[in-house]
Fold these 2 entries.
Entry 1:
Amino acid sequence: MFRLRAAELEVSRISVPGAYITLVLVTLHDLDTPALLIDLDIMERNLARVADYAHQHQLRLRPHTKTHKIPALGQRQLALGAVGLTVAKVSEAEVMLAAASPDLLIAYPTFGAAKLARVMEVARHTRVTMSLDSLDVARPLSAAAQAAGLTIGVLAEFDAGMGRVGVDGGEPLLALVQGLEQLPGITFEGLAFYPGQIKMMDQEGAAELRRVSERVAAAIGTLARHGIACPVVSAGSTPTWMHTHEVTGVNEMRPGTYIFNDRNTVNSGACGWQDCAASILTTVVSTARPHQMILDGGSKTFSSDRLANSSEVTFGKLVEEPAALFHKMNEEHGFVDLTHATRQFRVGERVRVIPNHVCVAMNLHEQVYGMRGETVESVWQVAGRGKLQ
Amino acid sequence: MFRLRAAELEVSRISVPGAYITLVLVTLHDLDTPALLIDLDIMERNLARVADYAHQHQLRLRPHTKTHKIPALGQRQLALGAVGLTVAKVSEAEVMLAAASPDLLIAYPTFGAAKLARVMEVARHTRVTMSLDSLDVARPLSAAAQAAGLTIGVLAEFDAGMGRVGVDGGEPLLALVQGLEQLPGITFEGLAFYPGQIKMMDQEGAAELRRVSERVAAAIGTLARHGIACPVVSAGSTPTWMHTHEVTGVNEMRPGTYIFNDRNTVNSGACGWQDCAASILTTVVSTARPHQMILDGGSKTFSSDRLANSSEVTFGKLVEEPAALFHKMNEEHGFVDLTHATRQFRVGERVRVIPNHVCVAMNLHEQVYGMRGETVESVWQVAGRGKLQ
């Protein structure tokens, strides 16, 4: 009568009265709080949207897995056409080996003998690329690769306006790349940058996008004039993902947050609330103060990240009451101002909250729940959480 | 020649050339970054200072273990005279059972059948007390305790001005306590409050301390007029710990942060920099932008907590260069402005940072290192990290 994909269902109880088998599914109501929920239909739509875009514009897609930190979801991204996966640290690369990616990009200047030994161990299992912005980082990498008899791909990181890592795209970039080309054990594969400064939601966004495009073209041009080709030109950032094809010369994108989206993504204009796959289920634990309720999740559950590019001090959107103001948190307490709410809440009621920044929230949860409607379809260990080194 | 407490030393290599045994100690320089370091001499001084104060003023000391989350340190607090330990969630209570405390105070209104079953399991091993502020929380607790054949101690939480959890100290407190006294399976043991709103560093602090004292006296008085005694009156907060004896009627303190202290504690005036036991060792990974360096730790390493009670947007103090400004972070990047620095830094250099808020930083580290000078004397698993429920 019913066809069940049993491997994907969490069953809390099986009873066999007479000839019938009753499977009791685990639902939203069985979960203790706080719990991080992933709406699988929304997640699949988000994954397909960006995969289709990359395919349409012939862009390499190398999703940043720091958002989900779950090998099974990395595999899903590969199945949808990603050419490889991106990680932030070697510890994340070790975890993401389980996704059997043909390529792992460590998008971070990785320094120190202990980390480099681990990079080489990862590189014995799959192809490894690293982005970096100095010969101080490249030289020990080169030495370690040579000693291990391995070749590591390298992307030179330049600053397209973010002002974080990355050399200036003129002479300093040329000097870096010429230095990289002298080093054994590594192969220069192209350029990387992170355009996190672009705010598409304000009028300045389009202008900054044009400036980034000019900087990228100039960087590629500088190298070309010295006979250096850039097979890969890799850009990051979810808020700008649908503008990637507008940036001259870019042929690779590595968005992360797009798999779930969050309040920051909505605020950036890159998605709507209906595209937010992740929410955190909480319980009201106190209503003792007038016009206020306390949720059983604070900075240990959501992180204390404020809304990006906003002066607003709020920590999430309550699905059940958008007029409620989640304005303050301690480690275990979420303070919600109900002054403008259209309804009241009782102790013990459950409320879902869309977090400001889902990547750092994922990092705080040991496991998360893949939901099909109210049914728990998957329980995922967040294997890459808490990986600092 | 040397007497070694071998159980407390981490040894990286033992070689036996001829008749000599060479023990190579693990030092600061062997640790990969980012790493959270605890200066054991400072920690012991901090522990002794508060234990001595509690003893001198005949105050019960029930330290909040949410700061360290390590059973061995809970044991140390008990050895110095603590009457019990405080935790924030039942999951932390489960972890802290390993400290063999005669008493665990769950200082949080704990709701839901799953959590209550776990509370009862903890209560089979040690005495459990819970602070709460509603009969909606107390009734299911009472039912669960009665069903389990156990008795749980209860502290009624009232609001001494913080505006978080806690009922008003007048009629609502009386109604709560009278309700508690009717419930089987639980025993009313007294009052709890958290005076987190007191800012001793400004002139308002002393006035607010007096107001808190008046509110506490009024709450105790209201209950006394109805023949209700409060064997325990329990106050929290590290910034105000040395003022606990000034608050009328309080006979118990449950500070947490005092074991390590942090930038918030210094800012509150409750300690100096020389009392900060915890720092985070990081590596400079990029100096590509002028007057800036990037550290290999951001919000995943420090948390994104800003300095409390300050409009300053900074995330820690650099031990090696106090004039450097740690003004921005992403998940893996710490942005340090060196405009006013007296020295420059190279890629690969290591820098220690005193975090704004050590409790949330501890929650992000799987293990931390107890240091005696530059030697690693203890490696502790942070057993209570990431406990959300």
Entry 2:
Amino acid sequence: MADRTRLTRKPERGSGSDRARLDALLDEALVATVATVDEGMPWVVPVLFARDGDRVLIHGSTGAGAMRQLAQGAPAAFSVTAIDGIVVAESTFESSANYRSAVLRGTFAVLASDEASRALDLLSNRILPGRTHEVRASLPKELAATLTLALPIEDGSWLYKERVGPPGEPDEEHAAWCGVVPLAVTAGSPQPAPWALGPVPASVNALVAAYPAPALSDAGPGPV
Amino acid sequence: MADRTRLTRKPERGSGSDRARLDALLDEALVATVATVDEGMPWVVPVLFARDGDRVLIHGSTGAGAMRQLAQGAPAAFSVTAIDGIVVAESTFESSANYRSAVLRGTFAVLASDEASRALDLLSNRILPGRTHEVRASLPKELAATLTLALPIEDGSWLYKERVGPPGEPDEEHAAWCGVVPLAVTAGSPQPAPWALGPVPASVNALVAAYPAPALSDAGPGPV
């Protein structure tokens, strides 16, 4: 994070343990931004995505300009950030955020036919686990209207950074409360459409379970 | 969002009502990504930020490469995205996400002396309302180590998109549950550091109150 954050772990490229953290972030975050260069100027679009082993998958309309540009091999910077907490220190200068962030650089490849179809199922099931078993298969015309792209996760082409834990211990006299306010993306109760059939399905319950609220206790919090 | 999202509102530039929505998004989101072009290649970094009227403010270490590049006037694309829900339709093709996203294009200006100091206070108080009244003022050496930058919000230089509401009503026979799973960034209980002094302060309570969990009811959800 381009702020006064203390990195508890230095940025590294391609180390084994950071790769596991990268994968965990990619498997948790719901949205990424893809930055490209358009006539010399920076551009960026948000996308839903899914990790599939050593690559990330995105999809979009064949009519979307950014997707077409990526499909033509434009260099991309794919970025994911999770804010895990606000770090409240004894001064504003030492205050910061707990976060995990990753940038993957490279060019996307276009997936075709069966591979694209499998990738789209994976994208659906990443967010709503098992959803493809609850609804009909995609139609040929739907597949034809969709661009499905894959960006490889290659050693040396990605960067992972994080800050975790409490603020640093003050080295000055102070009179302030210090600590961390946890933050997390949280799911609420599913809201059925008027034409919804049947009970809330397993896929939706799995989504809700995957994004619980951080602990919020009226009895007072515990220590960091 | 570069996916199969139906836009309920077409992207517009600079219209009055969209400007209000843009401001609401900028005042709610905690993190942005700033994309730049570095030797012809796209690059992107996450940043904390605050809106200050017709501009957004960011700050970072004078030693950070991306900040120095921005300070030298590099063109930037500043992007904010909020995921408000997963839209579960009768097919994976029609499924989507509710979201709000904005991109601001332009070049950042470097703020100096008093203006930088005020901007840094605004950045602190944006996340922790009133925090600057609870801790000592920033020191000259802290201000000297910090780059504070402002990007104007100018008509014609920003884009706002959103998708809201339930899935579209199916035009085909189906047997699926359809609806929306709300998502929101949620704060948990403040976790005091061992050296925290006093009760949880007003600034921290205000942060927690600003990011409540979406409704989650065991009694079953209501309709969309």
